[in-house]
Design brief:
19 helices, two-stranded antiparallel ribbon, mainly alpha, homodimer, three-stranded antiparallel beta sheet, 9 strands
């Protein structure tokens, strides 16, 4: 990877940045439309990330943050932990963006120009034409979101530097979720959930989960980052899956906005909030993906996986759509459940479970774990059953004992189903699967939810 | 340094932690006194930092974060960047502390016990017996303080990893100050200052600085971290000077609290706010100092210097005593002005300006910069004047040209004044100077301020 931007690249980034700055300057003259400002900020974040990844690559290599790509013929060293660059640009963007949605004494632009001191009452603002401003009280939750994201970046960098053990790693997002949980506790304390219709005779319409609600939020925060972190290992898959999820959430958010849903809708604010967190995320992730897609010129590091997962967790919790979020993470959930026997050492787990690179064909094949000792009877039978269901591939010796199995990850399963293929085709396949699952999930969310709830909140 | 805690250490830390947890549990039964909770949290933060520094030392060394102490006979490698451990524990502590001062619906303990649902009106709370609770609206500024501190930790770690150039480094705190500036803008926007009496005929009683006030706050944020970062280089000096400053600010804060000043006093809230940020800082810093004092078993890294400076900056800005803060940083200010000719390359500046270690005597001597080319006439004359004022020491050749000078740091100046001495005595001397300056500063602040202002706000 060249450390300098090419002429075309530099010109494109520069013109994109200038266009975005122009749009931003324009929002200052008008009502300061936060949604348009957010889009412009995302463009700026893309440009900065793209340029910084190039400029900082060598510095990362010098600091020892580098690795070899095992799935290539020529194994040159490339920079690692580039997700940290993404994350820092993202954090800066979301912080600088604060005045747009939250400025307290909203200055109304007058037609005469110049007289910008007319201050609207907050009530008038909320119901009036400046409909996209937030009530100022939401500032604390926005700040807590950024705090949680900063925490996960610090802990993620620690993980990338010190190679923390898996069983400690799992708890990293738990620490990072403390800010949003605390501010949620101090600021809202709403722990009631809507009860599905069939259960209403027993539980009533709203059920107060109490402190269990905090446990639930903590579990969402732990699940999202870790589930993205274990669906990883081939070029581009970490960033691309995060982008697919982000775009699907943005699509879902858009359903609650003006042309699709009449204003005022009670959930509009929550979904705008979600958009403001996601749009810059998409900006920085696209820039990273352009360097991480096959053949990768940089690696993203655990920092990125944690960071991306935490963006979704924070977004789902503070946007009040954490159940919808889980629907969009179904492939990750499947991968986690499917991996669990190896993660919890019920089945032996090798150090790496990446697909195996066949240097003769240039294709990826499923990687295999060999069982030195014979497996316990129920486990062996379970593996044989999964083999018959085509959910993994085992080999048996002449005595009928299971001597090896493909590793239990969705990436290997894809190779079991469709045979060896090149790294980018594998990534494309998984992404198509992710997209399809997500769209079905959203369809279920908005069409079939009426079976168990009295109404869709759309 | 042993990676394990000794038996006595482990027992002491454990009993301190248990005592603090007991105190915390007790605050939950009573009115939840935040000040007592803050002291208990600081004790916990001390214990965690102390233990973590020991446990993580080897991991830091393995990750390449290590360095040699040039001022020792045996130059063994010891862990670097240990300030990052401090900072992370500090951030976690300040986040977990949030519910104590800010919990919205304050639950009043009733004498009967058990009935904890009596909720006091906020007004009653502010003026009533729960006087140490904050109005909930201050939450955003507390969060912005933590955001700024997290930002500086991320950027500081980046600096320690990548060895950023000096001229880029200076701006690191500027980036980290963005969160407090933005939230200040969104949340308060108060940019007026009290005008000193002699100027009132011209400017009025209050003068609106407008956007210049933001420039001023940014400059305070840039000055504090950098000024601590350049008064560094001998064992313990970075942490110990920060501790002296922190203790002096705590002393000043205490002047505004209950036994000294009758409640309600308009500045009580600001100074409580300041205490809540400083007490845990003192906790983590003492733990670090115990490992960093002569002979140092760990180094603190730029991360610590930036972090400590930013704690003061944030504290001074949000506690509204930034001018008092500057009085406490007079030695740092002097060191900055004194160093400026070298920092801005008016006088040649070597890579390191640490005192020179004389391995024969075991003492530190002033380090010297030699001038290969003759200096320009006015600069040479200025150095000669400073030499005559005993503010540095130069050597001249037979032609009267200046051929060398002591490096322009307050540490070297101390050695010019008092001759070679051992590293810990040098540090002690500088700390005594820092303390004396600070006390005089505070005296000026509260006694002599009446000459230029109509009243002391105490």
């Amino acid at each position: 990877m060249s450390a300098r931007l090419g002429r075309t690249e530099a010109l494109s980034l520069l013109s994109l940045s200038l266009a975005c700055i122009g749009i931003l300057a324009n929002t200052l003259h008008g009502d300061g439309e936060p949604l348009i400002a957010s889009i412009a900020f995302s463009g700026l974040a893309f440009s900065f990330t793209y340029a910084l990844i190039r400029w900082l690559g060598n510095a990362f290599m010098r600091a020892g943050l580098k690795g070899k790509d095992l799935s290539k013929l020529r194994q040159v060293e490339i920079p690692e932990t580039m997700g940290a660059v993404c994350a820092v640009v993202y954090l800066l963007t979301t912080i600088v963006f604060i005045p747009w949605p939250f400025y307290k004494d909203i200055v109304a632009a007058t037609s005469g120009g110049g007289n910008r001191d007319v201050v609207l009452e907050l009530q008038q603002v909320e119901t009036g034409r400046l409909l996209h401003r937030f009530p100022h009280s939401k500032l604390a939750s926005y700040l807590s979101a950024i705090l949680s994201l900063q925490s996960i970046v610090i802990l993620g960098i620690g993980d990338d530097l010190f190679d923390i053990r898996w069983r400690h790693k799992v708890l990293i997002p738990a620490f990072a979720s403390i800010p949003i949980l605390i501010v949620y506790f101090v600021d809202f304390g709403v722990t009631k959930m809507v009860v599905p219709t069939p259960l209403r005779p027993y539980l009533g319409e709203l059920f107060d989960l109490g402190w269990l609600y905090y446990v639930y939020m903590a579990m969402v925060s732990i699940f999202c980052p870790n589930s993205i972190n274990i669906l990883a290992g081939i070029n581009g898959i970490e960033v691309a899956q995060s982008l697919v999820i982000a775009v699907l959430i943005v699509f879902n958010d858009a359903l609650y906005l003006s042309p699709f849903t009449p204003y005022p809708h009670p959930a509009t604010d929550s979904h705008l909030f979600s958009l403001y967190l996601l749009l810059p995320f998409i900006g920085v992730s696209v820039a990273l993906l352009m360097h991480n897609w096959y053949p990768a010129k940089v690696f993203v590091g655990d920092t990125y996986c944690y960071f991306a997962g935490m963006v979704f967790a924070v977004d789902g919790i503070l946007g009040h759509f954490s159940k919808t979020l889980i629907l969009l993470l179904l492939p990750q959930l499947f991968n986690f459940v499917y991996s669990a026997p190896q993660l919890f050492h019920i089945v032996p787990c090798p150090r790496h479970r990446l697909p195996h690179f066949n240097s003769r064909t240039g294709l990826l094949e499923c990687s295999i774990v060999e069982f030195k000792k014979p497996l316990a009877f129920p486990i062996a039978e379970a593996l044989k059953l999964l083999h018959r269901l085509r959910l993994l591939r085992i080999e048996t010796n002449e005595k009928g004992e299971v001597i090896s199995s493909t590793n239990l990850t969705i990436i290997n399963l894809w190779l079991v189903w469709f045979g060896p293929m090149r790294e980018d085709r594998l990534a494309m396949g998984l992404l198509a699967f992710q997209t399809a699952c997500g769209l079905v999930g959203l369809f279920i969310r908005h069409r079939l939810a009426l079976w168990v709830f009295t109404q869709d909140n759309l």
